[in-house]
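User: I'm new to structure prediction. If I give you an amino acid sequence, what do you actually give back? Let's try with this one:
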Amino acid sequence: MQPLAHHSILTMLAVLLSGLIFVTACSFPEESRLSNTGHSGSQPTPASHIEYDIELGESPWPGEEAATLAITESIEQTIKSRYMDNLLALRHVHTKAHGCVLADFQVNKTLRDEHQHGIFQPSARYKAWIRFSNGGSDPTAEDKEGDGRGMAIKLMGVPGVKLLTDENYTQDFMMINHPVFFINDPQKYLSLIQARSSSSLLTRLSAPLSLGIEGSIIAAKISGKKIGNPLYSRYWSMVPYQLGSGVNRRAMKYSAKPCIQMDNTLPSARPQDPNYLRTAMQQHLSTHDACFEFLIQTRDTSTPTGAALSVEMSTSEWEESVAPFFKIATITIPKQDFDKPAQHKFCENLSYTPWHSVSEHRPLGGVNRIRKVVYSSIANLRRSMNAITPAEPTGNEFFKPDLPRDTEEAIIKRSDERDYR
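Assistant: Good question. You get back a string of structure tokens that encode the predicted 3D arrangement of the chain. For your 421 residues, that looks like this:
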């Protein structure tokens, strides 16, 4: 255990990265850069630049392009130094998974007209791989410690042109168990990671000051979260996305909450099992299904209160009294044995990024723009270091249940048939 002050700084940084860098493995040219080109319509953007949807409230932050590239370079160097000597390069944050499970995503039979866009078509059904994780970068961290917790969903069998070309039939949704992020400005984020990587102890200790008062309060709330079971938590997108296309498009945020509220408090007797969140998931799914409601809230700019909801300010929550949530779909995780070495390896090689998306759900705001560059660059780096050949999942994968822990073999059944129900 590290000294308290140093540990607190690492925790804050890990939580910050947990919202910003759900690090993935997606294909993206290394020479990509941000563009300052604005546009009034939302269209699929080339992987080599970012466009801004001015009508939905997007605008570049001062120095955004340079800051994004510097952030990327800093994190790349961290990964290279952390996993030298031929160690397996893991995700930069959200490193520790509690479980990766196969699920069913069933869209409601009836939807409001304004919600019927993209994948949200009445009665549409998709298979999904869902990864639950801690937010930090230490894969050996004990689950009893406070941390942000992540839920990353990959839908499969999704038709339509995608914003990234490395996967053709997927749609990703990424969330943590807090409704807001605690930094907006790329320059502030760059200052934080530069201070954290400084050779000066005093500079490293002062790193959290880069968050400011508001950001520090939000970070403390996230880093203090302790839960009993990832299947019993509610998760939020924190940042906005597009819903629809053309003149009728609007901004949305999404959330997933358990269908039935369960006691999710940490047991009074602190768990001795450092991986008790995985154990809790195993115990539940060995005998019961798990269920989440998938919700969206949309911004109505025809009212003053709705128009005031920001796309760029990730620290600001969209109050439900102004933008209520509506149930769009039901996520069912059938009872299953997910704790298999081959399945774990398969999921650790999956690519999760909000830019695996149809254009009707295009990521919005500065945090998402940074994600596009950072995620892709670091994913390519991990793949290169681990000699991984990317393979798009189908939901038809099968893993032997009796492989020993130190065996990393999988029998993967892949089907060319796509189910677009």
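You can read the tokens as a compact description of the fold. Here is one thing that stands out. The first helix runs from residue 4 to 20.
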